[in-house]
Every structure is written in C-alpha cells, then in structure tokens.
Amino acid sequence: MQQKQSKKSKEEEPIFNGSFKDQSDDENDDKRKKQTLIMNVSDTKYDVVKFVGKKIFKWILQYELDGVNWDMFWTDAAVQPETLGKMQPHQKINHFPGMYSLARKNHLGRNLMKMRKQFPNDYKFFPQTWLLPAEYGDFKNQFVKGKVRTFIVKPEASCQGRGIFLTRNINDINPTDHYVAQRYMHRPFLIDGLKFDLRVYVLLAGTDPMRIYVYQDGLVRFATEQYVTPTTNNLEDVCMHLTNYAINKENPNFVFNNDATKMDVGHKRSIKSVFGKLEEEGHNITKLWQDMYKLFIKTFCTVQPILNHHYKSCQPDNYANNMCFEILGFDIFINDKLRPSLLEVNHTPSFTTDTPLDSLIKKNLIRDTLKLMNVSLKAKEEIISSRREQLQQRVLTGKKQKLTLEEKQLLIKQFSEQRDQYENNNLGDYVKIYPLEDSHEYNKFIEFASQLQDNWTGANIRRNQKKEQSETQQFQISKPPTIPVKKPNTPQMLPKISERQNRIHQSIEPNAEMKSKTQSSLGKNIKESKRQVSDPPLPKQHQSMRNVQQPPQQQLQIKSCLQPKLFELDILSSQNRSNSQNKKLNQFKLQ
C-alpha cells in the first residue's frame, strides 16, 4: 500500500522544466506561516531548490538574507560557525562548518596523504598527490631522465576545470605558484571510445556518529574527443583527457540530452542508464558500488574529527545530531578493471538544470534529501514542545538542568534510534552505508585522524599537561607527611655539651647583677620608655597633660614600640651565645 501511495504521489508531483518563478502572495503567506514551514532561499541561485520547496513541499520562500524565522536555510556558500551557533534546535541548514577540509583540493590531498602513510593498503583509492610549492622539491624529483611521466596540475581552490593542465616538464610550473599536482591515471574504462567520470551524490547527515547516504542516481560525464594515450603532442587536448562538463560543453562535438526518457544518450548520461548497460554486458556493478561505498566512508573518516569539533563547538546540546546536512559531489574515475578512484570532492555541486536529464535527477535528489532529513511541521512542533518543557523546569527550579555523562549517552542513543526508524522508512533513492553493523572496522581510521587533529591543534599537549598535574596532585595527597627526626645525643658528645654549657654560664654570671637591676627597673621605667618612643617632647605648657589617660590607639603604639626593645635584649643574649660558640670552635680547631 505504501509503495502504491508513493508512486501515486510521484505521478501527481509537478514537473520541473528547468526554471521557476515564485509568484506567491505575501498576504496569503502571512496567513499560512503557522500552518507550514519557511525556507530561506536568499543565498541560492538554483531554481530547482526553490521549485522543490514551493511546489512539492508547499513551503513559504523567504528572500531576506537577514531573516531569522526560517525553518530551512539553503545556501550555495560555506556555512560559518557563527551561523550555526545562532540557530534554533528546529532549524536546519544544508552545509557543515569546516567542510573546507574535504572540499578544497589542497586540504583533501594533505589529509588523504597522511592517512596513506599510516594505512598504505587501505588508502590506495586516489592518485599520488603533491602540494605545491611546499612539496616542490619532492615533486621535482619525479622528473627523471629516461622515464616519461604525465602529471595533471590543478589550482588548489578552483572548480569546473578552470586552470587545469597536463605536463611532462617541470619547467611548466612556477615554483612559487600554489597548485595540487597528481599522477595522471592511465588505462581508463572507455565507453564508445570515450573517457568518462562519475558524479556521485553523497549525503552527510551527521558527524557523531557519521550518517552517510549515497544516492543511487547521478551523472556520467564524457569527454568529447576519442581517447588516446597521452603523448607530448596531445597533452593540450583537454577535451580528450578531461571530463569536466564546463569544458566539454563548449566543444562542437558535444551532444546534449534533450529527452528525459532517454537517459543513455549524449555526452552527459545518468548513472542508472550507464550501469544498467554495463551490467547487461556482464560487469559486476554490485562490487563497483561496494568499492565506492568504502571509498566514501574512508574519505569521511579523515575529516570526521574536524567536522565534529566544529559542530559540537557551535551546538553542544544538539544530541539529535540533525541540524546540518550536506550533499557532496564525489568525482570518481573508473579504470579498465572497473576499480574506482577519487578525483575530488565538491561541497557545492552544481544544481544547474540546463537539460531535462539534470532537471529530473537534481529535483528528485533535493526532494529525497529534504524528506530524509525530516524537515516537516510535525518534527518542528515536537522539538519546540520539548524545548518548552525544559524551559519550564528551569523556571521552576531556577537552575539549568545539568546532565551526567550517562544521561547524555542515553539521550544520544534514543535520538539515534528515532532517526534510524524514520530514515529507514523514508530513504527514497538513497542507500545508507554508515553506520552499519560492520562499521567497527573503520574505527581505527577515525582514531588516527583524531590523533592527527590533536597534534595539529595542540590538544594532546594540553591533555598531557592536565594529566601530569592530576598525577602529581594525587601523589602529593597519597605521600605521607615527613616528620623531622632529631639526632640522639651520643655518649661521645655529652662531655663536649656539658663543657659548652659551663662556659656559657660563666660568661653570663658577671652580668647577672646588671641583669637583675635591669629587670627591677624595667617595670618602673616602662611608661617612661613608652613615652620616649611614642610621644615627641612636649612644651612646658602641655607638661600637665602627661597624667591624662591615653586613648587605646596610642596604647597599642606603646606596646608595639616596647616589643623592639625586648627583641634587642634577645639579640644581645643570642650574640653572647654565638661568640662563645665561635671561641669553642676555634679551640677545637687548634687542638
């Protein structure tokens, strides 16, 4: 029954003819705002996106870039962390912050080459890569006399084939220019004598855990000149060696597809039509898909720590892991043994619809993506009601509810199960490839990528410092306090000690009489000494005021001045002791 209903809905679905003009009424849209969702399309140029939102999902389109009351934001540009940080839990956006680590050619090459050094057998699915000018010296060593090697050189941040050229001469490259150089891949799989590549659409719907889906239809883009092995004479024939649509469509030989019912005609065809013919010829297309699935997962593993760090820094409390998604265009090269290799990844694949083939595939792709991400009024209301309950509890208790680690893990598991149940019933033309039951084999790649990320950011240094501090604190707490041990008086030391005491006593006796006089007169003269220390001499007319009782503050001053006097007496006695000790030491040395 569900399949019949889905077929009926697809038949009743409006047809997209490649262009769209929004003729909405603002007054009616204001009335419908509470009954439907709002899609912000202010930062996209593609009509197919607006068509899907308006005609298929019946959403209101918002064209103000600074609008905040949207539910779905579709942009053709990269998303900054600040944008994600300001979003509400029910809002969704079609990019992840930090995706430059995968989409820019230099970042992709650097990350993949690091993984290849650690896992050489697992990361063989892309050509050897050099990042110029940083690796110019190593790249220069590849040009050896007697060996002819062909390289393809690309600007590090370009698209649509701009600036790409083939070379066999190191002098063609300026040592200071920024390029990504790769070994040219020979022996391509040919169809009708033409080289081709695949544009496969891969959806990343979460970062921790990663949720990866692959669309079962895409584009096959052909070169427009018969393929010949590269030679010095044909290196400049880009329409033979490059399969970029933007380059080949300018060639007079290019054949456009003008009939959506015939997907296997022209220099741009659908993946389904091409794979169908190859399967009829006896090729193992199932294995080809499986090899590509592994390629996609391993590629995402290299950047999972980066994407997850950006996402959790912006939305730490989004345990559903569902506020961002991204459709990426993987460009795949197929060799003569039907083995796939990664050419590059596009984080903003073109949604231009200049042929009926493009219109059909890209419309269905965007529709299935938005449905899979559960962009619906029901999901929005559930999130808002849950948020309202949390705020009410916070008002009642006066505190923000802090979840333990076990509670957070339980929430993550519950949301993940809910998503699995919904997404498995709303895949459309998508296939889920990660996570699956056997996904644990990819953990080692993510763990190593996390180590690389920690080394790059210095997080491992800070973590080790904290660990050392905690260990030292625990050691100090567990270590028993040290009690000073007094050395016992040995029998050999007793005669020397008694002799020393006698000498000290003899030195003190002549001064005993003076000491007693001092002690007796000390009590009588203490007030006088206080006055002498604390009070300046007074005139005769104020002498009578001496008998007046002094305030407490002045009494404190007198006591503080008396203490230095007593301290001086102690110093004198200690000096006498030290002198006697020195004398004894000198006598001992003479002996």
From TrEMBL:
<feature type="region of interest" description="Disordered">
    <location>
        <begin position="505"/>
        <end position="556"/>
    </location>
</feature>
<dbReference type="GO" id="GO:0015631">
    <property type="term" value="F:tubulin binding"/>
</dbReference>
<dbReference type="GO" id="GO:0070740">
    <property type="term" value="F:tubulin-glutamic acid ligase activity"/>
</dbReference>
<keyword id="KW-0436">Ligase</keyword>
<dbReference type="InterPro" id="IPR004344">
    <property type="entry name" value="TTL/TTLL_fam"/>
</dbReference>
<keyword id="KW-0067">ATP-binding</keyword>
<dbReference type="GO" id="GO:0000226">
    <property type="term" value="P:microtubule cytoskeleton organization"/>
</dbReference>
<dbReference type="GO" id="GO:0005524">
    <property type="term" value="F:ATP binding"/>
</dbReference>
<protein>
    <recommendedName>
        <fullName>Tubulin-tyrosine ligase family protein</fullName>
    </recommendedName>
</protein>
<dbReference type="Pfam" id="PF03133">
    <property type="entry name" value="TTL"/>
</dbReference>
<dbReference type="GO" id="GO:0036064">
    <property type="term" value="C:ciliary basal body"/>
</dbReference>
<keyword id="KW-0547">Nucleotide-binding</keyword>
<feature type="region of interest" description="Disordered">
    <location>
        <begin position="463"/>
        <end position="493"/>
    </location>
</feature>
<feature type="region of interest" description="Disordered">
    <location>
        <begin position="1"/>
        <end position="31"/>
    </location>
</feature>
